[in-house]
Amino acid sequence: MLRSAQKRIETGRAAMTRPLEGVRVLDFSEHGFVPSAAAALGDFGADVVKIERLAGDAMRRIIASGMVATKDGYDFQFELFNRNKRGIALDVEQPAGREIFEKLVRWAEVYITNQLPRVRRKLRTEPADIFALNPTIVYARGHGQGQRGPDAEAGGFDGVSYWARGGVAHVLTDADATRPTKQRPALGDGPSGMFLAGGICAGLVHVGRTGKGIVVDTSLLGSAAWTLGPDLAYTTLAGGQMPMAADEQISPLVRQYRTVDGRWVSLMMIDEARYWEQACRALGLDDLVPRFPDPASRRAGWPVIHERINAVITALDHVELEAKLRAQGCIFSFFATPMEVVADPAVVANGYLMQHPEHPDVRLAAAPVQFDDELPAARRAGPTLGQHSREVLTELGYGETEILRLLDDKVIAEP
User: Fold this and answer.
1) What pLDDT is recorded for position 377?
2) Residue 267 pLDDT exceeds 60
3) Residue 140 in contact with residue 219, Cβ under 8 Å?
4) Which of 57, 170, 354, 371 has its CA 20 to 30 A from that of 249?
């Protein structure tokens, strides 16, 4: 059983609403992928302490994709991956800093890192080093390509390890395109971080059952392979890339159409037999029902059916089309802009975006897992560099005189 869970039982505390409340997490990672896993654990209720170098997480200084990352001192990129954490700025290479680090490892139930093997060896943060300090800890690490193989020592970011090397860019780029499809910021980081967070939760169960620590690994490349599972399975089966179906090979009920006001809509009625009559009624094409009564006749008539459906949809605006499709229970969606996603009633009602505790107009994507119908919340803003150094050291038993000396010696930092 987890130490934190055992303590709650022993002290008679009532069950808490967030499943990881009281679980102690030490996050020694940078950038987006692995910190996002720790942020998810924070969303789930864990007490997350983030260690940063005195210079700060590199994410604090990154400007990529032409984006302006800050507004009025607010850095949305750092915040997205570091909300619901406390932060300590610590030089772990100084003896006094190493002592603090080791105390934090003994305090924690989960240790998270994205350090490369050579850095782990230098800083003595390999699994064996951490287990020597805390044999029941969950040691979680994220990597670009994986801990084994020829590139175990090589770094990687989602634009390389997930998007490019993982094949995602290739399958999302049209064959006749002159340039690859552009990646959106951190497209592979968020999903990969959730995979790591899930692995950590499984690791906590393992520790609870066995009393032994465990190493949890995932990588951006492995995440891409999972994402492209159907493509890769087909490739191994057929010995080549899964072909893109020609228009005449795609069901008219599983296609994209464009309305008269320029909005793209995706129909996704995969179970054609179930939705055939509904779709025809919605679009005023009742005459097609008796004309194509079974799967074989519909398959042979796909070109005709598509032409008729396209003629109807291209004459309607998106408001008219939505009303018709909804009335018959059809499965569809218009291609939404980010502004439309933010305002989507389902997104709002389900709490998929959290209000920032200090910037009420800002919405952050929440970890997309909820428990007991409780909506996630950003209880704590991402820490400024060293914001909680003094608080964390006090909890570890350091007195004011010691803390001031550590500040003077540049072992720790605070704002």
Assistant:
1) 84
2) yes
3) no
4) 170
